[in-house]
Amino acid sequence: MDHPYERRCRLLMRAYPPRFRQSRGDELLSTLLDLQEPSQTTPSLRESLDVIRGGLAVRLQDRPPFWRWLLYRTLFLRLPLKYRMWARDDIQGRFYIFRRYYGPLGTIAYAAGLFIVVFFDEEPFRALGITLGLGLGYLIRSLGAQRIRRRELARYDLDSNGSLLSPRSGEDRSR
Fold first, then answer.
1. What is the model's pLDDT at position 56?
2. Is the Cα dihedral 73, 144, 20, 168 positive or negative?
3. Cβ-based neighbour number of residue 104 at 10 Å
4. Chain centre distance of CA 17
5. Buried b (16+ CB within 10 A) or exposed e, 46-80
6. What integer pLDDT is reported at residue 169 of this predicted model?
7. For residues 38 and 3, is the Cβ–Cβ distance under 8 A?
8. What is the DSSP string of 36-91?
């Protein structure tokens, strides 16, 4: 049963990180549904703010310190295993591939394509600009997104679906 109240509660729950929703989402949803008044179609403002505040608190609680986050995002340095689940959520996130690979290369391709389309009026140049900007940009992104995600998850001892790998005997984990 997907009622408007339940849909809005699920939307509010997106304030929490995916791993929290996966492990405790049903509990949170059932609590919100228990709070529903008989004729209520949306959660109250107070309940909504509480859910959002709680979700932001959980997200900020296990976030790496700013300087580690900055090194992770700019130089792609590996975070300590303490932040492995935060890294997993980031790697499996919607914009990771864009940020990691498509961002620098794809942006150059799009910029070059846009430059050609805007400043050259002749038809062959426009086709080249569109091909370069859209085609090459998309190709760069799609050519290895899953391979890239698998490799990055493996750096944190995670399986391709984000679950923890079982430790292998005799293997050094001190990396």
1. 92
2. negative
3. 11
4. 10
5. ebbeebeebbeebeeeeebeeebeeebeeeeeebe
6. 44
7. no
8. --TT--S--HHHHHHHHHHHHHHHHHTPPPHHHHHHHHHS-PPPPGGGHHHHHHHH
Give me the residues paired with residue 158 across strands: 164
Residue 29 identity: L
Separation between Cα atoms, residue 119 and residue 14, nearest integer Å: 43
* C-alpha dihedral (138, 139, 143, 148), degrees to nearest 10: -50
The owner of tokens 């293997």 is: 171
Please give the pLDDT value at position 74.
77
The Cα-based distances of 113 to 59, 138, 175 in angstroms read: 38, 12, 42
pLDDT at 38: 84
**pLDDT under 50 in the chain at which residues?**
169-170, 172, 174-175
* Main-chain dihedrals φ then ψ at residue 42, nearest 5 degrees: -135, 150
> Which tokens hold the place of 155?
């750096």
pLDDT of residue 13: 93
Burial 6-33 (b: 16+ CB within 10 A, else e): eeebeebbebbbebbbeeeeeebbeebe
